[in-house]
Specification:
The protein is of the alpha/beta class and 379 residues long. It folds into two domains: 169 residues, 2-Layer Sandwich (CbiD-like); 201 residues, no CATH class. The chain has a five-stranded mixed beta sheet. Strands 14-13-15-16-17 form a five-stranded mixed beta sheet. A three-stranded antiparallel beta sheet has the order 9-8-11, with no helix packed on it.
Length: 379
C-alpha cells in the first residue's frame, strides 16, 4: 500500500511555491518544492501544478492532493495558496487566512478550520524563507472544498462551508484501503484469537470494544475502558463483526458517533460514505416507528445532517415526550439486533452485541440495555 500526504502538506507546498515566486518576481521553474514535515521529522518533495504572479506583490501556487492508497474524497483536489506581502502594521510575521472551501468552526466564532499541525507546518516552512523584515498574508483556498464537505461528517463536528486542514502528521496512511482491514483483523486476532481465547477467567468474560474512529477511541478511554479491550475499526465493521463471530468472541460493544453507527440499524455494515449513506432515512424511519408526529417527520427529512436531526429532536420534544431518548434508544437496540443477525449470517456463531452512540461534543446520547451491562463490566 502506498501512503500519501495530508492536506496541510499540500497547502504548505502551494504556499512555498507562491512565496518563492513572489520573492523572485517571476514563476519558479522548479516542478517541486521541499518541505520539512516536522511530524514525522523528514523532508519530502511535493510536485507543484502551477504557480503565477497575480499582481504586484501577490502570487498563487497550486498543488493537487495525493492521499496515497486511501478511499479519500480529497484525491486530486486542487489546493491553492495566495501569498501577498503584508502591511508593516500586521502583527504576525505570517498571517494565515481560510479562503473559499476552507471550513469555518461554527462553535469557535467561525475561525478557519486550519488546525494546530497545519499552522505549525506553514509557519515553520514559510518562516525559513522570509527575511527578518518581511511579513506575508497567506490565504488557503480549496476550490472544491464546499462541495466535498457535503459528503463528510464535518458539520457534525462543527465545521461548516468547507473542509478542514486537519491532522497531526504529514503522512496520510492508507486507513481506508483494504490493507487497513487486514491490520484491524490482525489486531482482533491478536487480542482474542491468539491472546485470550481458551485462557478463561475474568479477562475472557469482558467484552471487546469496537471503536469507530479516533473520537470513539478517545471517549471510550476517558470513560475508563482499557486500551487492551479496544479495537479501532475505521469503517470496516462488517468484516470485523464476521471475524469476531468466527473467532468465538462472546461479547462485543460497538462505540461510535451516532452519524456513523446508526447506519448499522439500517443494515449498512461498511460505513464509509463512498459506499452507502442512508442516515436520514434510517432516522426518519425510526422516528416514525416511535410515533413522532407527521409534521416533525417532514422537518427531519429537510435536515442536511444527522447532527441536525439530533438538534431538531432535542428542541422539539413536546407533550412530555423525550424523543431523543425514545428514538435513539430504539436505534441502539436495532443496532444490536442487526449486528447479531449479521454476525450469525456470516459465521453461524451467536455473539451478544451492545452499543453506545455519542454526539459531536462527545456526549453519550444513547446506550442499549446490553451496552449498559457491558459498560458496567468494562468501567
Amino acid at each position: 500500500m502506498r501512503s500519501g500526504y495530508t492536506l496541510p502538506v499540500f497547502a504548505t507546498a502551494s504556499a512555498i511555491a507562491a512565496l518563492q515566486c513572489l520573492q523572485q518576481s517571476s514563476p519558479t521553474n522548479k516542478p517541486v518544492v521541499t518541505i520539512d514535515l516536522i511530524t514525522p521529522p523528514q523532508r519530502v518533495e511535493i510536485s507543484i501544478a502551477q504557480v503565477a504572479l497575480i499582481q504586484s506583490g501577490m502570487a498563487l501556487g497550486i498543488t493537487h492532493s495525493d492521499p496515497g492508497d486511501n478511499l479519500d474524497l480529497t484525491r486530486d483536489t486542487p489546493v491553492w495558496a495566495v501569498v501577498e506581502w503584508a502591511d508593516p502594521s500586521q502583527v504576525e510575521t505570517i498571517a494565515l487566512v481560510g479562503g473559499e472551501g476552507v471550513g469555518k468552526q461554527s462553535n469557535l466564532d467561525d475561525l478557519p478550520a486550519i488546525y494546530k499541525y497545519a499552522r505549525q507546518l506553514l509557519q515553520a516552512n514559510l518562516g525559513l524563507l522570509l527575511t527578518p523584515a518581511q511579513k506575508i498574508r497567506v490565504t488557503i483556498i480549496l476550490p472544491a472544498g464546499r462541495i466535498l464537505a457535503t459528503r463528510t461528517s464535518n458539520a457534525a463536528f462543527g465545521v461548516v462551508e468547507g473542509l478542514s486542514l486537519l491532522g497531526t502528521t504529514g503522512i496520510s496512511q492508507p486507513l481506508s484501503a483494504p490493507g487497513q482491514l487486514e491490520a484491524c483483523l490482525t489486531e482482533l486476532r491478536g487480542k482474542w484469537g491468539e491472546g485470550e481465547r481458551g485462557k478463561g477467567g475474568d479477562s475472557e468474560s469482558l467484552p471487546l470494544v469496537f471503536c469507530i474512529g479516533e473520537n470513539g477511541l478517545d471517549l471510550a478511554q476517558q470513560m475508563g475502558i482499557k486500551r487492551d479491550r479496544i479495537i479501532k475499526t475505521a469503517n470496516w465493521l462488517g468484516p470485523l463483526l464476521a471475524e469476531a463471530g468466527s473467532l468465538g468472541v462472546p461479547k462485543l460493544l460497538l462505540f461510535g458517533y451516532h452519524g456513523k453507527l446508526i447506519k448499522l440499524a439500517g443494515g449498512i455494515f461498511h460505513t464509509h460514505h463512498h459506499l452507502a449513506d442512508g442516515r436520514l432515512e434510517i432516522l426518519v424511519a425510526a422516528a416514525a416507528r416511535m410515533g413522532l408526529p407527521a409534521a416533525h417527520l417532514s422537518e427531519l427529512f429537510d435536515c442536511e445532517t444527522a447532527e441536525d436531526v439530533l438538534k431538531y429532536l432535542q428542541i422539539s420534544s413536546d407533550g412530555g415526550s423525550n424523543w431523543v431518548t425514545q428514538i435513539y434508544g430504539y436505534l441502539t437496540e436495532r443496532i444490536d439486533n442487526r449486528s447479531q443477525t449479521y454476525i450469525y449470517s456470516q459465521s453461524q456463531q451467536s455473539v451478544s452485541v451492545g452499543s453506545v452512540v455519542f454526539d459531536r461534543q462527545r456526549r453519550v446520547i444513547a446506550t442499549s440495555p446490553t451496552g449498559r451491562t457491558f459498560l458496567t463490566q468494562l468501567c
